[in-house]
Design brief:
Strand content: 5-15%
Largest sheet: 4 strands, mixed
Number of helices: 15
Helix content: 40-55%
Shape: globular
Order of helices and strands: HEEHHHHEHHHHHHHEEEEHHHEEEE
Radius of gyration: 21 Å
Oligomer: single chain
Strand order of the largest sheet: 1-2-7-4
Number of strands: 11
Distance between the termini: 25 Å
Length: 446
């Protein structure tokens, strides 16, 4: 069985049709040839865009010369109402300063500190999970949001403000396309950016709730009563070069991206992993056997969940939560003997790279054992980037690789997941790779 992927468009379509397809779903707007191409050029009257799949070009952009390929504002324009000036959108010295403050909170030792909160969120998810026909994207969104609030602010999802943020974010996620009009047309700063009113209103509401949490935490820090969690760590960390900490407004921006990146992407990855286990029951049973190791509730149990890690890694390959990333050229470049001018868009697509027919063995197949093969090891180094790569690799990558296998093992230990005929999911890209009509599975207790 081949896991589902979206249909591809014809090779040639008009700019108007491409814009319409792109706004509806970034994945099905792309032609099938991109699963074999090393590079593709897309032209509009206003800019040139180059999708690069060749490993050495990706390495150039993300690792060798990242400062010469900053993040493109064409993507940032669509997300700025919620994320403000967060680390996800900034470039240059601003971004470097933000990372100097944020990164220490996610170092290896802190993962051990956050593990009890992750475990508690996983146990709550198991207790909350229903049986019968269950839409697991919704369930995994709830679980991932619970992880974020427990590790960041030491509050469960049932907390009044946490619950409201979660509810508001569900509305935001479905109304915000990855790109808006500013992605296609040059627009002066004073012009409206094309955001839907509902999107703007929801973003404003979410930021107000996050501001409330952040302000309360600042007061606790000053009173010496703050818990030792991620929020406290980040808010009290000084930039080693300037000695400054984040202001409340800056912290609101960062919390917004922690919630987006840490909740939305994890929910996508967990839901697709459960679907893959449902259609490949032999792997599900292997995971259920391995999950017996969870009798040990300490952080050391993660070293025993190797199969769960490989399954989760394979799900991230087939369904990378962030399907595309966009950088911009600042210098004249030459890509595959083609001149590329400053201001061109460079599209890096984990979705196409992870399924590239000239790189991967069995690119569309589900095979967690591939990571032990030579091809799998090579592709892991050169053609696998669910968390980006290089200097801008996701700060929470290590966090995600603990959270995902842990929650997955806890769920499979307690429940059996089966597909439902007639409800096969179709991948689409909203803020992350989700299913068009959700992911419905039949769930029974073990």
């Amino acid at each position: 069985m081949i896991p589902p992927k979206p249909p591809s468009r014809p090779d040639r379509v008009s700019l108007f049709r491409y814009m319409r397809l792109f706004r509806q779903d970034i994945l099905s707007a792309q032609p099938a040839r991109l699963y074999r191409a090393w590079m593709a050029e897309f032209r509009t009257p206003f800019f040139r865009s180059y999708m690069v799949n060749e490993p050495k070009l990706i390495d150039l952009v993300l690792k060798t010369r990242p400062d010469d390929f900053p993040k493109s504002d064409r993507v940032g324009e669509g997300l700025r109402p919620l994320l403000g000036n967060s680390v996800f959108l900034t470039n240059g010295e601003t971004w470097k300063r933000q990372r100097r403050i944020i990164d220490p909170a996610f170092e290896g030792g802190r993962l051990r500190d956050t593990f009890p909160a992750m475990w508690a969120a996983g146990a709550a998810s198991v207790a909350r999970m229903g049986t019968g026909d269950v839409e697991v994207e919704e369930e995994m969104s709830h679980a991932a949001a619970d992880v974020i609030f427990r590790t960041l602010f030491s509050i469960p999802i049932e907390h009044e403000v946490a619950s409201e943020v979660f509810t508001q974010f569900r509305d935001y996620q479905r109304t915000q396309p990855i790109l808006n009009l500013a992605a296609f047309f040059p627009m002066p700063r004073f012009m409206p950016r094309g955001h839907r009113k509902r999107t703007r209103d929801t973003a404003k509401s979410i930021r107000a709730l996050i501001t409330r949490l952040t302000t309360e935490r600042m007061a606790e820090i000053q009173a010496g009563t703050a818990p030792d969690d991620l929020a406290t760590k980040i808010m009290t960390t000084k930039d080693p070069e300037t000695g400054e900490t984040f202001s409340t407004e800056e912290m609101v921006d960062q919390v917004a991206i922690f919630f987006l990146a840490g909740h939305e992407t994890s929910a996508s990855a967990l839901a697709w992993t459960l679907y893959l286990l449902a259609i490949f029951p032999e792997w599900q049973e292997k995971l259920a056997e391995e999950a017996a190791a969870l009798e040990d509730q300490s952080f050391s149990v993660m070293s025993k969940l190797k199969l769960s890690r490989d399954v989760f890694r394979e799900a991230l390959r087939l369904y990378p939560p962030v399907p595309m990333m966009v950088r911009e050229t600042t210098c004249p470049e030459e890509f595959r003997k083609r001149d590329v001018k400053p201001g061109a868009q460079v599209v890096l697509s984990p979705w196409h790279l992870h399924r590239h027919e000239r790189l991967w063995d069995n690119p569309d197949g589900f095979d967690p054992a591939r990571w032990g093969t030579e091809n799998g090891k090579t592709c892991m180094r050169e053609a696998y980037m669910p968390f980006s790569a290089g200097a801008r690799v996701c700060t929470g990558a290590g966090f995600a690789m603990v959270e995902g296998p842990l929650l997955l093992s806890m769920l499979v230990r307690a429940f059996k997941f089966e597909p439902i005929t007639g409800k096969e999911p179709v991948p689409v890209a909203h803020l992350t790779v989700r299913a068009k009509d959700g992911i419905h599975l039949k769930i029974t207790r073990r």
